Amino acid sequence: MKFKAPVTKNETVTATIVDLTYEGLGVAKVADYPLFVANALPSEKVKLQVTKVGKNFGYARVLQRFNDSPDRVKLPDKVYMQAGIAPLGHLSYSAQLKFKQQQLRNVYQKNHLDIDVLPTIGMDDPRGYRNKAQIPVRQVKGQLETGFYRRHSHQLLPLEDFYIQDPAIDHAVVVVRDLLRQYNIPAYDENRNRGVIRHIMVRRGHFSHEMMIVLITRTKEIPQAQKLILNILSQLPEVVSIMQSVVPKATNVILGKTVKKLYGKSYIHDQILGHTFDISALSFYQVNPVQTEKLYQTAIDAAQLTGEETVIDAYSGIGTISLSLAPHAKYVYGMEVTEAAVADAKRNAKHNGIHNVKFEQGLAEDILPKWQAAGIKADALVVDPPRKGLASSFIDTVGKMQPKRIVYVSCNPATLARDLTRLQEFGYKASQTQPVDMFPLTQHVESVTGLEREK
Ligand code: SAH
Predict the structure, then answer these.
(1) pLDDT (tens digit per residue) in 414-435
(2) Pocket lined around ligand 1, Cβ cut-off 6 Å
(3) With contact defined as beta carbons under 8 Å apart, do 246 and 219 qualify?
């Protein structure tokens, strides 16, 4: 029998929201068929218009809301939801923290993992936290604009206050935008792959207040570059570095593989847990400096080091976790694929006078077997992989290396649960997971899980 959805496109229905998806969309059910709805919270009765009908689920938008959830808060501007900047911005912060704890519980339950999930560690003020921005530059209605894409589209919504970014970064974007307008430097045109300025990237040290501006361009040449640079420097005294990254092709990738220096240093400084770090344009660096210290402290505690251990920090970036662990360990080995980040990590160790660390560049799934073959025995292993989680060959090597403890720092509950299940097969048991809110007002869930090898 051919399945037929109980609703049709454009139909209006009235329903009560019963759940929230992991992306923060409300769930309404019509004869068991789920409709996903933005800006709708559990217990809210809403009049909906169906916008999309799929085989197993559909999408709808709210035409009218009959009651407010007790967890609903007012966002200062609905553009933040349209742009996906603050997809959970309509949910009270305490409810967001519970939502994130629940996401982990749900995924553990689905995977039959018996691991306790602690209450999420949140921020005192969950706004203006981001230390980095990558802002698209486009021509809108005859004028160069900076802003944010409407969700699931390439339509730029002009915006000056990004709400979750460091306000000094918002200000810098406006200054650069106005200078681009003043000197008639063309915005990138996506449809024809023409124009010059694709994105403005800004990074600012939370403690140092040093700022880096990266101009991401289609062309190598930037018209009026000298005037632009001089004016940026005079109007933004925090800027210590101006870089350029050229991305000639039509692509969704924001940053190129290389950067060129236009002014100053090729990195900025910042501090974490008392150590100073050089951060270059291409290196990964945690975007929420206040929460990063809490995240790392949680990871250090979970490693339960006495000062005698050999530790491996896989996916080490610029060495921030490695250097935070080093004072508590005998020796720390870091591995990381991005060359610029490894160079930053080595410099960072030296500048902080830390000598019991070593960094190697390469894929974690290649380096771990190499180290294992070379006889390196880790007592503890810290992993902080990207969203796709650990390669299964990496986990196989962990099974051979048999570190006593593993600390898993995760930004994706789904791959975390998958990897914890595999690690369990190798005798590793986790008792609890500590979520730390690194991305307030968004659906992203970061967590730390300590595992111990069973005898
Ligand atoms: N622990 C660091 C970085 C975490 S982000 C911090 O807290 O800042 C994940 C890092 O893994 C990035 O630096 C990315 O470049 C790196 N990476 C991604 N895939 C990798 C792989 N297969 N092998 C090694 N490093 C990888």
Answers:
(1) 999 999 999 999 999 999 999 9
(2) 284-286, 315-317, 320-321, 335-338, 341, 363-364, 384, 386
(3) yes
